[in-house]
What we know:
There is one protein chain. This protein has helices spanning 4-28, 35-61, 85-108, 115-133, 138-156, 162-193, 198-211, 216-233, 242-248, 251-276, 281-304, 308-347, 353-356, 361-393, 398-401, 409-422, 429-450, 460-490, 496-503, 511-521, 523-529, 531-541, 551-555, 564-589, 610-647, 664-683, 693-713, 715-736; strands at 69-71, 79-81, 590-592, 598-600. It is mainly α. It has a two-stranded antiparallel ribbon with strand order 1-2. It is elongated, with a radius of gyration of 35 Å.
Amino acid sequence: MVSMMEMRETFTAVLFPFVMCVIVGLMSKVKSKEKKTFALIMILAGAWELVLALYLLSCDLRGIGIGVFEVPGVGGLGLHFLYTGFRGIFGVLTAFAWFVTALFSYEYMKNDTNVIRYDLYNLLTLGATMGIFYAADLFTLFFFFEMMSFTSFMWVAHRQTREALYAAGTYLGIAVAGGMAILMGVFIVYDRLGTLAFDAMYGRAAELMMSGADTTWLFVAAGCMFVGFGAKASAFPVHVWLPDSYTEAPAPATALLSAVLSKTGIFGILLITLDMLPMQGSWGAFILIVGVVTMVVGGVRGVMSANFKTTLAYSSMSQIGFILTGVGMQSLYAEYLMVLSGDLIGSGSETVAEFAKTFGMNMATDGTCLHMLNHALIKLVLFMIAGLIFMHVGSYDLNQVRGFGRRKPFLFVTFLLAAAGVGGIPLLNGYVSKTLLHESIAEYGELLAAGSSLALSATPAMIKAVEALFLFSGGLTIAYMTKLFVVLFVEKNGDKKVQEAYDAKGEYASLMTKAAIGVCALPIPLIGLLPNLVAEPVAAYGLVRFGLSEQLRHQQEYIHFFSLKNLSGALISITVGAAVYFVVVRFMMLRGLSSNQKGYRDIFPSWLNMEKYVYRVVLYTAVPFVLGIISRILDSFVDILVVLLRKTVYSDRPLPHELSEGNRVTHCIGMSIERVRLLYYAVMRKEYTPKNYAHKLAMKKIDIFENFRIIERSLSFGLFMFCVGLGLTMIYLLMVN
Length: 737
């Protein structure tokens, strides 16, 4: 039986950052200028959050059950938290990322302004992110996802420069639009399935699909939610917030945006794929296509950028494309297994388990999980190094940072490990996850060729194109990381005095900063050198599966990562990367800045800027223009309708005996009195003088009714009527009882 203590620990990991936010906010009123004190508090808060996340992990590894914990009453549905292996891994990763960036921020933010505000929103974002990863239902996920979007918005706007506010506006606009799309999807799911709990959603969705019911609305809901989650993950085409936001946010915040917050979007897409549309290959094909486009576009933009941090931003986009490719392959494999299971049952074969061990399902799921983890570790290293460079150079322009890394061994080693790791170079972590993803694609192509009669959502030609673009995108990664490496450590700065100043920087980073970067770089070679001992167990623990039996994993043999077949894929990407680097970077980007030196320039056409020339034009110009025209048409229609009604149904008609004052009662009474008086004067033979009683009664009527209206509008009358109503209610209750 699950103890209440362990159940509450999941919620404690979510609640703790919010409590710390309140404490830091109160302390800032007393010691607003003690930046070092608050920096140490942030480090301790990150360390304690990491302890909480590791405690949950240890409880699960020791077999201590951690059930669902509920906080009732929030939003009418309550908040529900759940612990699983996948959630546990990314909970630890989130806490670890916040801890190391807090170490890095101790030096990076010491001369910054509004540090306390940054710390407060940093803690709020941490709590919201932990709430996302531990969410047990869609409502809880949406609740914290929206909170995270608004709190992380302050990261982008932190500098409060014109460029930062412009980037923050784009970030917030995409976040709000994405949140509305997710909410629409949540409404549809709750209306159709009657639940938002992930486990219950999977059962009901699978039951509907097996019964042959129409699931169009499920795809509509999934499409809506993909817009919101895909925007946070930087998937094409809702990635437009990424380059400016990553460039303008402080380096610690950018590291968290890339390493962790982008994974919340992937997490949402995974839940849609696993629990809303299980075994739906058409959805998997859609995710696969989006993933391929995302990794190619991100790679191309990364190669063509002349800004250090912008290159890393587009690198994050490209790597998210690799992860989405893995998600799409999982869905395609699930469809294949479902179709094959029907054929096997019909032919009298034993079970799907006898055949599943040859499939690439494990490689797709393992590769997705591992590449999410590997990318997070690598981008923590790279963006902290970018921040370290900015501290000394004051710019991210490649021409300004050239030669900074020379004679700096620590920077050389850590950057090389991260750059080669994300490039998929053998013996490093990126090679392991990319090999798994590549082999899952190749294996699926072979399965399609062998079972061409099966009705599936992907074709052999499509899978071959995906494999080719996968390897090509790997080459693009190697090309832009080579560009950055050469700029930092091989080339010299065009200004000799600047280069001499760079070379003289012996103490360019504090021990705490080096510790933050080094502890993130350490797993990169460890995972790459021992993939079967390190990577496979991690992926097995955190695996998100389509309900397949865990014993299928035990039937799956270890992958020979360093076989000639698997190494050939890396070799192709390296060859492509070398060709792209020399053709695009060396011959197209390098141009003469003056008579005696060359410099890098951004060669991506500015007119292809989607954010500036598509989204802003559509949202700020086209949409208001169209809505304005529609509003004018509707307004004119209403005016025409009113005029038409006034001319026909509600046309003015003169009253046959319209009275100038009073009403018919006062008029009749007044005229009657006047006639009686006239008769009296005629009998008495007196001179008659009209008194106009109709007018007098009309005026009296106006006076009386005006007094009544004054009384009705008074507070005393309102209180009197309230007492009357209360008295009648008490009498009624006494009579009933």
